[in-house]
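Students often ask why we bother encoding 3D structure as a string. The short answer is that it lets us treat folding as translation between two languages. Here is a chain of 452 residues written in the first language.
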Amino acid sequence: MKLKNMLYSLYALTAIGICCVPAVMMYKNYTDKSSTNAELAKFPKIKSGGSLNREFFCEFETWFSDHYAYREKFVTANANIMADVFNTSSNADVIMGKDGWLFYNHTVDDYTGLNTLSERGISNVAHNIQLMSEYCKENGADFIFAPAPNKNSIYPEYMPSRYYVTNNTKNIDAVKAKLDGSVGYCDWKNFLITSKDNGLLYHKTDSHWNNFGANLASRQLLTDLGKQFTPLFNTGTSYTWRGDLYKMLFPQGKELDMQVEYDGLFTFETVGRFRSWDDSTVNTECEGKEGRLLMFRDSFGVALNKFMANEFAEAEFSRVVPYRMQGIADGKFDCVVLEIVERNLRNLQKSAPVMPAPTAKGVNLSSPSVSADVYTEEIGGYLHIYGVLENLKKSVKSDTNIYVTVNGITYEAFRAYESDLLSGETGMTESDYGYSLYVPYVENAQITIAVG
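And here it is in the second language, the structure alphabet:
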């Protein structure tokens, strides 16, 4: 009996000791670096603004979770057990697909056709793209809208069978139908589906296309721009890529994904400060090529941009939001591309691009003015006017435009709800009835809102 009690005590002490190791190592300032480059939480302050910080314990919990010693090793071990034993993901943002494929959970609504944009939302996105296109054309620049398809839109066969796909129209298809040929459109979705037999287009453990997929995508985009290009053929493959989804699921994992190489085939040069293709702005030059490109891009541009840079005398790649379009009027660019991934299409009704709002001509307004929340700010020589018509949502149709008159001049607004600026004022994170536009700055502006 005494030996049995000693064994129980030894077991309990061992368990307590193991649990104390992370705390002791935290005291020694040993903390795993985040494999996702996320900023770790800072230790909370006891006082905030001269009084006790009421959020101290919540913030302390966040800090402790981030700084827990060996945290990522424990997360990886747990993920391996969940994957190997139960064939499921331990990370809510990552879906374990078939044959080792990983998918981003935030693409599920697009894949299933659930929680899609409303009819008004689709109209808003199409309207905002059309206004950008018209501005480019007025200033002598070609415009192409290029939505990059989610990985499971190209490879649905590797998604788990438990996800039921509805017959609802997907956002990417609804926006294309709404645009109806009114703007230049690069149909990457259908092009890549028909190109699957030529080789693997997306990384198995990443949410993005690989270099081969980006190369084919660039060819289609350049073709739609009516531009001649030099075909590039890969120089081989290597297992050097660590997928973003894999890092989220297995932060200490060592497995690498296949990447297609194009070493030594690019002739462009970067201009100015350059750290990586994920910089907010990257400028390039390519001797012997023609054309000046402005490309608004997201994370899919990391692989795509170098193929595009290789075909233009000058190119600028920007991931700054809201989109800065001022240089177009100065004749700085003759080609403009708007690339955005399918799952983020709704973001095109969340902010207006920085450009002069078009003046309204021959518009038949349904009323001289309506009641609306109006907010303004001065920014870069513009008066930014924005707000929301939430009280009119029962009377505003899906295609109803919003017009803003400033000191007697009437402008057509972008149908965008500036959530970063308005959520604190209205308590809403999104709305189909927002408006936003930039006009030349004037003091004491007299502003009225109308719909039509």
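Translate back mentally: Residues 94 and 104 are 5 Å apart (CA to CA). Keep this in mind for the problem set.
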